[in-house]
């Protein structure tokens, strides 16, 4: 395992980067700044390695250009309406960092922390962080661990655990930006996507779920069959208009509650690279990179709008305000657990792209 300096954060904290290399030469790179994925190098159908994760060369650049790229998001991933929630009869006020709402943990969420790193094996690293009672407005002192393992089968296994000394809420995810052609190699609209979901949660003008649940069948949200992300992304549709593409929570079909089930498949026809997502979470956020700003990424490569996609396993956004959504409440001294796996592979048939 290689360890190197990753520069300093925006306020001068030192960061490190670890790279795990498996037997085939594929690599997973991580930094303690945000317990973050900084790179995943996997082969195409001809054996050529390419980094399929967008990112930057130093910790400081992440804050400047792409705060959430690759990071562990928390305490609460996605949006909470009104930057507040009610729990046990008390109202907790959070930092409103997205209009009147709280996004991805607030002003200084888990993405902005230096996590303690422990090498737990040749193929694995554990990151730990102690979130103070009241941090960003959330109740309870919370001990959080994120464990990454990179297998010989080119799987990135992410296991999350957390314990709080008070009742609180939690929703953790990873926010890596992917392009299976390789980072900086243009648009992802030709990538083919399948989601194991028959329903999604529509959003309002603030990009917060409005509480309704709608079927995807026959709509622009229908990814029940493998087809290009760009097929319908520019069609006249109110949900697409509100977020300039896709940025929606899809309700996953669970084989058994709490089990690890297939959530999504992505195929990039030209390179042959594939990605399959497995998770035990009830939802997955599909984001098509609509609001990405032009910037220079690692190695001098250029990024722009819709040059990456995200698939973020999660509890539903704003679930504290919608009683029929899954609950994100973590009771005092109980253990929160979440597991998501990103499996990288190859499709051999260039014509079919499958």
* Spatial strand arrangement across the major sheet: 11-12-13-14-29-23-22-17-20
What is the number of domains? 1
Shape type: globular
In terms of per-residue confidence, which ranges show pLDDT below 50 for 5 or more consecutive residues?
A: none
CATH architecture verdict: Distorted Sandwich
The profile of the biggest β sheet is: 9 strands, antiparallel
**Could you estimate the helical fraction of the residues in percent?**
under 10%
β-strand percent reads: 35-45%
Number of strands: 29
State the end-to-end CA separation.
33 Å
Rg calculated over all Cα atoms: 19 Å
Overall average pLDDT: 96
Main structural class: mainly beta
What's the CATH class, please? Mainly Beta
**CATH third-level topology:** Beta-galactosidase, Chain A, domain 5
Q: Total number of helical segments?
A: 2
GO molecular function, one term: carbohydrate binding
InterPro entries: Aldose_1-epimerase, Aldose_1/G6P_1-epimerase, Gal_mutarotase_sf_dom, Galactose_mutarotase-like, GH-type_carb-bd
Family: Belongs to the aldose epimerase family.
EC number: 5.1.3.3
In a nutshell, what does this entry contain?
With 354 residues, this protein is mainly beta. It has helices at 59-65, 238-243, and strands at 2-8, 14-21, 27-31, 36-43, 49-51, 72-73, 79-80, 84-87, 90-93, 102-103, 116-121, 124-131, 142-150, 155-164, 168-169, 173-174, 192-195, 197-201, 214-215, 227-228, 247-252, 261-267, 273-279, 283-287, 295-296, 302-303, 310-314, 329-330, 335-346. It has one domain (2-346): Beta-galactosidase, Chain A, domain 5, CATH 2.70.98.
């Amino acid at each position: 395992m290689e360890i190197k300096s990753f520069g300093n954060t925006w306020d001068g904290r030192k960061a490190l980067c670890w790279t795990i290399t498996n037997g085939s030469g594929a690599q997973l790179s991580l930094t303690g700044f945000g317990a973050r994925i900084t790179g995943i190098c996997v082969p195409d159908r001809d054996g050529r390695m390419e980094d399929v994760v967008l990112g930057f060369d130093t910790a400081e650049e992440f804050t400047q250009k792409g705060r959430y790229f690759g990071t562990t998001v928390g305490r609460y991933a996605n949006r909470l309406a009104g930057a507040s929630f009610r729990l046990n009869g008390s109202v907790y006020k959070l930092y409103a960092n997205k209009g009147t709402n709280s996004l991805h943990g607030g002003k200084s969420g888990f993405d902005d922390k230096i996590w303690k790193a422990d090498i737990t094996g040749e193929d694995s690293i554990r990151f730990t962080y102690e979130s103070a009672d009241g941090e960003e407005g959330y109740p309870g002192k919370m001990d959080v661990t994120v464990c990454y393992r990179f297998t010989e089968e080119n799987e990135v296994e992410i296991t999350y655990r957390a314990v709080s000394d008070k009742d609180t809420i939690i929703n953790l995810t990873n926010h890596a930006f992917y392009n299976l052609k390789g980072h900086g190699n243009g648009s992802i609209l030709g990538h083919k996507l399948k989601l194991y979901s028959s329903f999604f949660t529509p959003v309002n003008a603030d990009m917060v779920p409005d509480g309704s649940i709608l079927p995807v069948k026959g709509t622009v949200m229908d990814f029940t069959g493998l087809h290009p992300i760009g097929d319908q992304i520019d069609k006249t549709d109110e949900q697409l208009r509100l977020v300039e593409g896709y940025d929606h929570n899809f309700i996953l079909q669970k084989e058994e509650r709490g089990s690890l089930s297939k959530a999504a498949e992505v195929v990039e026809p030209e390179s042959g690279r594939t990605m399959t997502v497995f998770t035990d979470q009830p939802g997955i956020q599909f984001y098509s990179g609509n609001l990405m700003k032009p910037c220079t990424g690692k190695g001098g490569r250029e990024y722009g709008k819709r040059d990456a996609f995200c698939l973020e396993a999660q509890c539903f956004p704003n679930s504290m305000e919608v009683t029929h959504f899954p609950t994100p409440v973590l009771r005092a001294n109980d253990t929160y657990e979440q597991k998501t796996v990103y499996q990288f592979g190859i499709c051999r048939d260039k014509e079919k792209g499958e």
